[in-house]
Amino acid sequence: MELSVVPRLAELLKRSPLDMKSVVSDAVMRLGVDRILGEVRKTLFGLDDVIKDILSGVMVGRHVLVVGPVGIGKTTLVESIAETLGLGDPPYIEVACHSHMTATELTGDIDIAVALQSGLDHPLAFVPGPLVMAHGKFLILDEINRLNPYSQAALLQALQEHYIYIRGFRIRTDFILLATSNPVEYSGVYELSEALADRLKVVELDYPEKEVLKFVLQWKSKELVSHLALSVPSLFVDVMANLFAILSRDVKLEVGPSIRSAIYSLSTAITRALLEKREPSIADLKREVVNNMGSVIRGTFSSDREKAEYLAKKFDEAILMSRKSGEQWKR
Ligand SMILES: Nc1ncnc2c1ncn2[C@@H]1O[C@H](COP(=O)(O)OP(=O)(O)OP(=O)(O)O)[C@@H](O)[C@H]1O
Ligand SMILES: [Mg+2]
Predict the structure, then answer these.
(1) From the CB of 70, is ligand 1 less than 6 Å away?
(2) Torsion of CA 255, 259, 264, 265, to 10 degrees
(3) Is 222 a pocket residue for ligand 1 (Cβ < 6 Å)?
(4) What does the pLDDT look like over 214-251, one tens digit per residue?
(5) 10 Å Cβ neighbour count for 6?
(6) Domain spanning 3-204 has what CATH number?
(7) What pTM, to 2 d.p., does this model score?
(8) Does residue 47's CB lie within 6 angstroms of at least one atom of ligand 1?
(9) DSSP 8-state assignment for residue 209
(10) Is the pLDDT of residue 176 over 50?
(11) How many Å lie between the centroid of ligand 1 and the Cα of residue 70?
């Protein structure tokens, strides 16, 4: 960030309150819901209902938490909505949350040495954090469930009082929070405090239905191989969608498959065959699925080998499903 755009402390102390529900609603009404849906569809497909759930929240000043399994489009979705509504330049401030994040990483801090030497209004005397910089826009907290309780408390204060306190200075901040998180049963995450959770509208993202998933897989994997003049066989996409259906309803899995890993399995299977100057086969796809998805899914497996065997077996079941439904295929 350029030094000239870093706000000085004196300016921040004079900030006036902003009515974020009007700011957001004006942007939605100006663009129109069809244009917003159309813009988001350029990167994500099949999420119109979820987008409307999010918009209806933020238009009344409600903060929103998008919850869903790994690699299902949560981050892309909130970024795309914030980008489309374009509340400022940049249109949103994003933080990749982690468990060691301190409250001052969120609020910002005063550098005492610079402040003493050059005064509080020296551009480096005060380094504003994301909670301050998000004033008037969206604040995206990606993977908010990784925030430890201390940082959660700093965030709560900003949401509750619209002020943050930095070494006694009180700074106004109004923003709309768009957060993402995995479900609570995933490991390596903190539960959100009740007070914080109460301030968030939860919108759930789930695996898309088969036809939507097939469209997404075909579109995104083709995007990755089109520069090599390669295409993605529809049989591969069908098998992958069937594999999703099988895995996502298997109670043995604590963490299911990700759309991201499916897209990469499809595209790397095809590229791999290109390197060997041959047509891709379903066996290439199987190999890539075991490689790419093995690191994502989690369940009661005693070893990596057992997990690989599980995936291979489920993949064979998915092939059978495709065969039954009449997809043309080639070994
Ligand atoms: N409905 C969809 N339409 C198009 N692409 C999708 C869809 N769902 C997921 N993807 C693709 O899957 C990939 C993963 O998306 P993203 O990183 O936003 O997921 P996430 O849920 O935030 O993942 P994580 O849990 O790992 O943070 C992206 O490449 C995205 O484009
Ligand atoms: Mg994400």
Answers:
(1) yes
(2) 70
(3) no
(4) 999 999 999 999 999 999 999 999 999 999 999 988 98
(5) 14
(6) 3.40.50.300
(7) 0.92
(8) yes
(9) P
(10) yes
(11) 8
